[in-house]
Amino acid sequence: MTLKPIIAAGLVLAVPLGVASRAPQLTHFEFSEPHMGTIFRIVLFAPDEAAAQQASAAAFGRITALDDTMSDYNPQSELMLLCGHAAGPPVVISGDLFRVLEKSQDVAEKSGGAFDVTVGPLVQLWRRARRQHELPDPESLARALRLVGHEKLLLDPRARTAQLLKPGMQLDLGGIGKGYAADEAIVVLKRHGIARALIAAGGDVVTGSPPPGKAGWRIGIASLEMPEKSPTRFISLHDAAGQPGHGGQRPRSRARPRSHQECPGCFAALRPGHRAGRQYGRMAVSAAGLRGARTRRFKVPVTARSRAIRARL
Fold it and tell me: Which pick of 63, 141, 211, 237 has the fewest CB atoms within 10 Å?
């Protein structure tokens, strides 16, 4: 059987040109669109091009809607409108935004605040520092830190409301938004009869059922100390998600919101409902799960439905 390598979202997919399976025969398709400041890539197996096109279009439509909800760059997004009511009364929000915030609060509690979506003021400072090539001054950091803390975000599940207790608070869903969108896109694909799929979003990755004839999507775990070295550890995943702390961006420091201490980059690959295991580093994926297939590293942050948490090393 001939193999055709296909590069997608930092992945090298070794895909059989002819996949032997039960009727109808499934064919490999790949689609990509820009969303949420990155490229979302959908790799799937479908009976024909029409089915693949229809399913992927619906998945991208769902991603677009979620971007309109959770973006912190769009001043008219639901998230930013909520932040505009900081220190005001509770605000009724959509089911999507509530689920993301509820999961974020759950992870914040379980991680002791290592994951915290109220870090928006700090994120804004570091974005400015990156643009200006100048570190934030201590006074600015201190002011931003006073606005951070997941206990300052109140959620009411019965009324489906959110309330930010201090003026100037800002939420940042960068650690969960793209992963949630990838999760939801997988759900849309399944509703369209496409179960065998992988979605990569600038680092976030969610997998559905494995490629035809394979036990899972082959994941290579690369070393943080030697990032250019080919992975020597591999796992096979299906219906799962993965997450590292950093994906090779500079500077490499990840700060805990309250103490501003470094939180090392880490990785976890989890099945839905499983507890976080030990975390390792970057990941590489060979979508067809073939031995010896070339791999390339990519970062894979947490997703909401995976119930992953950023456990510290």
Answer: 141
Alpha carbon of 257 to those of 17, 79, 143, 206, 281: distances in Å?
Answer: 48, 20, 12, 27, 21
Answer yes or no: are the C-beta atoms of 117 and 97 closer than 8 Å: no
78-164, CATH topology level: T-fold (1.10.3980)
Using CB atoms within 10 Å of the CB of residue 204, give its burial: 0 to 12 exposed, 13 to 18 middle, 19+ buried: buried
* Spans in the chain with pLDDT lower than 50: 1-21, 244-313
Domain ranges of the chain: 3-68+179-298, 78-164
CATH tag, 3-68+179-298:
3.10.520
Angle at alpha carbon of residue 68, lines to 66 and 71, rounded to 5°: 90
Report the distance separating Cα 280 and Cα 137, nearest Å: 33
Q: What is the pTM of this model?
A: 0.71
* Furthest C-alpha separation in the chain: 66
Handedness of CA 60, 66, 72, 78 (dihedral sign): positive
